[in-house]
């Protein structure tokens, strides 16, 4: 396969959204195939396309890649967003893993039963403000640079701006005690490739709604 990367997933954020973010930040155009039925998903499995019978699926450079972390690592390395050496890559990995832990809570939130939503939202706020955002506030303040690692735009920066915006959708004032992150958000949002991705009509997906939740459950829940 040649040409644009091709992404196969549901028409929503989920585990594919960080992939969309990273490709967009790298200035890479991509195509998407949206799963809408259980039959489409089962056909991918039957055809042997999904190594572990899971999506996301990204077709790039002749490979059919699965597992979100592997996909993101490959894209970050391919487009020079993964640091200049092993130490920088290790820092990027640590930051990304931390942000992913926070994003997992955001990812599962739409699937919470109604009676648990308020409690889960409180958990997101507590984790964001007490565990995760303070780390990045401190990093940015200590080294006084625009980016998290090596004063160069990296995968970690992309992951962090995605997380900030996702948490703000649910808790608008979450950055009120984090001036460094407020400035970081403005810087990142004005980078040309990210600014383009944040415009209406881009491949960025809206917050999950009931229809998205129903589609996901229909396709993947046995």
TrEMBL record:
Keywords: Transferase
Pfam family name, one: GST_C_3
GO molecular function, one term: glutathione transferase activity
Gene3D superfamilies named among the record's database cross-references: 1.20.1050.10, Glutaredoxin
Superkingdom as given in the UniProt entry: Eukaryota
Domain GST N-terminal: 3-83
InterPro entries listed in its UniProt record: Glutathione-S-Trfase_C-like, Glutathione-S-Trfase_C_sf, Glutathione_S-Trfase, Glutathione_S-Trfase_N, GST_alpha, GST_C, GST_superfamily, Thioredoxin-like_sf
EC number from the UniProt entry: 2.5.1.18
GO biological process assignments: glutathione metabolic process
Top-rank EC class of the record's enzyme: transferase
Location of the GST C-terminal domain: 85-209
Keyword Hydrolase: no
PANTHER family: GLUTATHIONE S-TRANSFERASE, GLUTATHIONE TRANSFERASE
UniProt record similarity statement: Belongs to the GST superfamily. Alpha family.
The protein's name in its UniProt record: glutathione transferase
């Amino acid at each position: 396969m040649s040409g644009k990367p091709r992404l196969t997933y549901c028409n929503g954020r989920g585990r594919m959204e960080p992939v969309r973010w990273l490709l967009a930040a790298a200035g890479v155009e991509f195509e998407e195939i949206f799963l809408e039925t259980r039959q489409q998903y089962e056909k991918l499995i039957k055809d042997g396309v999904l190594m572990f019978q899971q999506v996301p699926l990204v077709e790039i450079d002749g490979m059919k890649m699965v597992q979100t972390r592997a996909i993101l690592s490959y894209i970050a390395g391919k487009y020079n967003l993964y640091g200049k050496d092993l130490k920088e890559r290790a820092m990027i990995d640590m930051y990304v893993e931390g942000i992913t832990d926070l994003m997992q809570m955001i990812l599962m939130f739409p699937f919470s039963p109604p009676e648990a939503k308020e409690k889960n939202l409180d958990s997101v706020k507590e984790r964001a403000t007490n565990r995760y955002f303070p780390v990045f506030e401190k990093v940015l303040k200590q080294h006084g640079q625009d980016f998290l690692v090596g004063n160069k735009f990296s995968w970690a920066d992309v992951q962090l701006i995605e997380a900030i915006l996702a948490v703000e959708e649910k808790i608008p004032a979450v950055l009120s005690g984090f001036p460094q992150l407020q400035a970081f958000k403005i810087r990142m949002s004005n980078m040309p490739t990210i600014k383009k991705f944040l415009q209406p009509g881009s491949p960025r997906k809206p917050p999950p709604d009931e229809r998205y939740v129903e589609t996901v459950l229909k396709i993947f829940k046995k």
